Amino acid sequence: MLSDRSYMRDNYPRERTSVLTWLMSAIVAGFVLQTVMGRVFNTPGMVEHAFQLSGGALRSFRIWTLLSYSFLHDIDNLLYVVGSLFALYFLGRAIEPMLGWKRFLGLYAGLVFAGGLAWTALHWNTGGALMGASSAVFGLFVVYACFFPVQPVTFLLFFVLPVTLKPRPVAIALAIFDLTGCLFYEVVGAASPFHFAHSAHLGAMAAGWVYFRYLHEAKWRLPKRRPDIELPRWARKQAKAPAPVNFQVNLEPPLDVRAEVDRILDKINSQGFGALSADEKRLLDEAKDLLSRP
């Protein structure tokens, strides 16, 4: 078969689905689930009760609503859902490759969580519920403005009119707008005519700025734990230095060799050089080499 041949095999890793795609799919799935349960099965509010954020939900220990609210939207406002998806797509497409999927997912969750906490702090006793991904979108836009403060960006005003602006002044204008709306409407307990959760936007935008300012360049690793008790220097066991080794090279010929050489020399004086044996001649040559060394 062709697949048995090495040159026909595909050894390249498969491209994985991006986290941005999963997040957008979850938002679409949440909107579809809300629509089906509310209009097909005629059980409106069932999904919202389980996953939207409210003070009552947290008092009932539904802690997951601090994150799950971002996947729910008003099913009567399709334009709001489409706008959030478009904004999330264009911002995520620029930010996710820079951070990696793990950091991007953590950033998204942190923005949603911060927005939910800020909204809950103002609406703990006033009632109401929070849904929508706009808080995460506003937070991502602040992060984008921190990365690309002066890069021109073209917006489609009302999805028709193109307008080119720089991200930094737009982020500042959005922060002022939400701060004003939060002070004039949410703090006094009035409903905003824009139907925006200004406090949630402000919380996510603040979290986005804090991330870029203090966490983006940080290395996400646990520090190495040092021992709780450290012995004083005098109590530590000191490693003993090895004793120096003195090497002495004895260049003197052994005493028995000297005695044997003296005997051979006496034999030469009395009997002549021809009387020496082969071993005596060899020993005499070795002794001569040894004595001639410096």
Task: Give a written overview of the molecule.
There is one protein chain. This protein is mainly alpha-helical and 294 residues long. It has two domains: 197 residues, Rhomboid-like fold, CATH 1.20.1540.10; 36 residues, no CATH class. A two-stranded antiparallel sheet has the order 1-2. The longest helix is centred in the middle third of the chain and has 23 residues. The radius of gyration is 42 Å and the shape is rod-shaped. 24% of the residues are buried.
Give the key terms.
Rhomboid-like fold, two-stranded antiparallel sheet, 2 domains, mainly alpha, 294 residues
What is the first-to-last residue Cα distance? 80 Å
Strand residue content:
under 5%
- CATH architecture call of the largest domain: Up-down Bundle
Q: Strand order, main sheet: write it out.
A: 1-2
What's the rounded overall pLDDT mean?
84
What is the gist of this entry?
Helix content is 56%, strand content 3%. It contains eleven helices and two strands.
List the helices and strands and how they pair.
Elements: H1 19-40, H2 46-51, H3 55-59, H4 65-68, H5 78-99, H6 101-123, H7 134-147, E1 153-157, E2 161-165, H8 167-186, H9 198-215, H10 255-271, H11 278-291
Antiparallel strand pairs: 1-2
Helix pairs in contact: 1-5, 5-6, 5-7, 6-7, 6-9, 7-8, 7-9, 8-9, 10-11
